[in-house]
Amino acid sequence: MFNILFNGFAKVYMKNEAFMYFGLMWKYCLPSIVTYGTFVDMFCKMGDMKMGNRMFLDMMKVGIVPNLVVFSSLIDGYCKAGSLDVAFEYFERMKECSVRPNEFTYSTLIDGCSKHGMLARADSLFEKMLSASILPNCTVYTSIIDGHFKKGNVDDAIKYINQMFDRDIKLDLTAYTVIISGFHRVGRFDKSMEAAEYVAKNGLLPDRIILTAIMDVHFKAGNIKEALNAYKILLAKGFEADVVTLSALMDGLSKHGYLQEARRYLVKENANEILYTVFIDALCKEGNLDDAEKMIKEMSEAGFVPDKFVYTSWIAELCKQGNLLKAFMVKKRMVQEHVEPDLLTYSSLIGGLAEKGLMIEAKQVFDDMLNKGITPDFVSYDILIRGYHNQGNGAAISGLHDEMRKRGIIVED
Ligand SMILES: *[C@@H]1O[C@H](CO)[C@@H](O)[C@H](O)[C@H]1NC(C)=O
């Protein structure tokens, strides 16, 4: 029973409340390995490694032997905090406690080492992992390949890439992006294009994903011209762009301050519903609501009906800028045009209200959403909880926790 409660609290990171119950529990029974595990995990995920460590020492003191969960959480936490040395100390301690590291433990450490340029160490862990008969997956290969590329060890990177192919490991978009950008970074443009074309020829990924990856690589390198060029070449080769690709394109352009230029170029070329939608979204995300509004008007005039996506981007940015009045006006218009607001629309509105401390109104909108038959998720609850938290309204938070539990959003395990 207590453990279930902790898990709930831990998931929403309510340190203080969890502590209160911890104190309460001591009166009745001793905390178990599960309780400690939950606590250690909570602190580590919060990045509070001091407390994570304290919990570890505490459990050793009362004679509870730490398990794989505890060690994994600590190793992961210390890796994320950049304290690789401490992470390795725990790795050693695992052996002393006869706890065998698993795929997660190895992956975490290899990723940490790769990110911190300790490639020799990453290599040796990789060997150990293989000799323990644990099969590395795509993610861990990607970490070590990325690390080697960043260190300029092209040959080592290639060694792991080949190993992946030999082992028939399916590469995902991240892996390809790392490989393509890796070759790109070391000036091997031939290889990076080759990797992209290899992927395309073998149909390993949908064309648009490759297109997105290549553009992304160029944008990250700050080569706007090349990004647009790659886009054009690939379109000419018959690749098809979709919302994801176009969004990436807009995102890249706007990050480099080229959105206006793109607007001229693209809209003239072939204006369609998707382009308008993506553009409006990009303008909203950029905070440029004046232009977004103009474009929405343009879109309507061109005979396209703004959809849920357009309205939601608009509302989200209005809320972010604190213009709630307008946000609600847009929502009204949306409903009038028979476009149903969805979870994201409602969450934006609730967030906007909660941000201003208008919790009564926020709750009203939340209830309105429930009445419309929309099921809230963890994020929407979290928005409300944060709002109540700022006002110190513990009762309201407990009520929400009950609801979350009933809906199974806080998993009882
Ligand atoms: C690979 O394994 C790690 C550690 O267990 C895990 O976090 C990651 O999600 C896995 N990746 C894939 C693609 O399955």
Give a short account of the largest sheet. none
Order of helices and strands: HHHHHHHHHHHHHHHHHHHHHHHH
User: What is the rounded Rg?
Assistant: 26 Å
Low-confidence stretches are none
The total of helices stands at 24
Which kinds of small molecule does this entry bind, naming each only once?
2-acetamido-2-deoxy-beta-D-glucopyranose
State the total count of DSSP E strands: 0
Helix content: over 70%
Average pLDDT, rounded to a whole number, is 83
| Strand residues, percent | under 5%
Structural class: mainly alpha
The shape, in one word, is flat
N- to C-terminal distance:
10 Å
Family: Belongs to the PPR family. P subfamily.
Transmembrane segments: 20-44
Protein name: Pentacotripeptide-repeat region of PRORP domain-containing protein
PPR repeats: 32-66, 67-101, 102-136, 137-171, 172-206, 272-306, 307-341, 342-376, 377-411
Question: Keywords for this structure?
Answer:
single chain; 413 residues; mainly alpha; Serine Threonine Protein Phosphatase 5, Tetratricopeptide repeat; 24 helices; 75% helix; binds 2-acetamido-2-deoxy-beta-D-glucopyranose; PPR_rpt; Pentacotripeptide-repeat region of PRORP domain-containing protein; transmembrane
Helix-strand layout with pairing:
Elements (H helix, E strand, L loop, with lengths): L1 H10 L3 H12 L6 H14 L2 H13 L6 H13 L3 H13 L6 H13 L3 H13 L6 H14 L2 H13 L6 H13 L3 H13 L5 H14 L3 H13 L6 H13 L3 H12 L2 H14 L2 H13 L6 H13 L3 H13 L6 H13 L3 H13 L6 H13 L3 H13 L7
2-acetamido-2-deoxy-beta-D-glucopyranose binds next to α7 and α9.
Family: Belongs to the PPR family. P subfamily.
Keywords: Membrane, Repeat, Transmembrane, Transmembrane helix
Protein name: Pentacotripeptide-repeat region of PRORP domain-containing protein
